[in-house]
Structure formats: C-alpha cells, structure tokens
Design brief:
Number of strands: 0
Largest sheet: none
Number of domains: 1
CATH class: Mainly Alpha
Distance between the termini: 24 Å
Radius of gyration: 17 Å
Helix content: over 70%
Length: 89
C-alpha cells in the first residue's frame, strides 16, 4: 500500500502525465512534426513507467514482505514476477 507521501507523489506524476497526453493531442490537432509528437509520447511513457516503479516498490516493501512473513513467499514472488513480466513487455 502507498503511504501518504507516495500517494501525493504518484498523483502529482499522473497529473503531469495527463498534461503531457493533452499536449500530445493538441500537437496532433496542430499537425506538428511526427518526430516531435513521438518524442512527447516517449516522455509520457517514461513518466508512467516511473509511476509503475513507485507502485512496484511499494508493493514489494509492503505486500510482498507481509506475504513472506505469513509464509506465502512462493505466491507473492509468483505474483510479483507476473506483474514485472507484463510491465517489461
């Protein structure tokens, strides 16, 4: 689970990413150069990846640690690896 500081950080990043997405839409409406649009898309993806990494770290430090303490290590590791596998595609 995210703590209050992490929640604020994630929300700030998501608002920024939302602004980037809106900017990309505006760039397309304006007929901006394709490479410029693609660079903004890559920046938005990188920002979302950072949010995902915050979530993965929080999950690992809280939920996975709890599962290990409750002797559910295999289940927790399998779930985490499944998420990481999808994240890297």
């Amino acid at each position: 689970m995210l703590n209050e500081r992490e929640i604020a950080n994630v929300k700030k990043r998501l608002r920024r990413t939302g602004g980037q997405i809106n900017g990309i839409e505006k760039m397309i409406d304006e007929g901006r150069y394709c490479v410029d649009v693609l660079q903004q898309i890559m920046a938005a993806r990188a920002a979302l990846n950072q949010v995902a990494l915050i979530m993965i770290e929080s999950h690992t430090k809280s939920c996975v640690v709890t599962a290990i303490k409750e002797n559910r290590t295999d289940e927790a590791v399998d779930e985490l690896m499944g998420v990481l596998s999808k994240f890297t595609k």
